[in-house]
Amino acid sequence: MADFQLRPLDTGGVFRESIAAYRHRFGTLIATAAVLDLPYAALYYVLAKEPPALSTIPTNEELSAFLGAQGPWLAIRLLITSVLFAAVIRTVAETYAGVESSWRETTAAAISRMVALAVVTILFWSGVTLGSALFVLPGFFLIVAWSATLSAVAIEGAGPLTAFARSWMITAGRRMAIFGILATASGLVIIANLVLVVVLSGIFGFLLGDAGSLLASEIVWVVTQPFIAVVLAVLYLDLRVRKEELDTDWLSLQISATSFDS
Question: Whole-prediction pTM value?
């Protein structure tokens, strides 16, 4: 078993630990992402209509038509992503606590917090969207200040409002470092997505036709999205070690208290 210790990390350390945790629990993370998202992908392929085309500068009517067609699917995907992130965050925290739970256990624990995660998802993206509309920068600020919200729900069992308050508190004083780490991680995932989608779309498109592109996108999503959640988990643990002297015993107690079986 890999040795994961709770300790303060510099920027390079966050990425090294994130990559190590991603590799160490790769099977669990991929299984979690696949189980949560594959049913959505299948339903989207069968039921979703072709989204209306948008011009270079879309009109209000075009945007309304597009959101009317894609809005419900986007909302479902955002909720699935929040549940996935919560499950991955819990997997990483349990790894640091010396627990090797299965994807079934961490996924069940995340699903048991579905209502709280749904509220967090709505509030988070409403705030970020509004902040982005106000000169863009407030949106980025809120993404950073609220970056530990899902972790507070998944690990501490916090309610939505408490989770936002916890994130605001523990990210204070480290927000520039967090922004740099999240921007870098997001950039790496975007590049990986672009490269892998092009490669896999070519392969699957030749074999499966139109369904090939959807399958390629889904495989890439399942492989890459958990990495962002792993980074969020490592950041959250680092912040709590720095500010609250979090140790393995304390982390283990919180995980036990918020387990699905409790």
Answer: 0.91
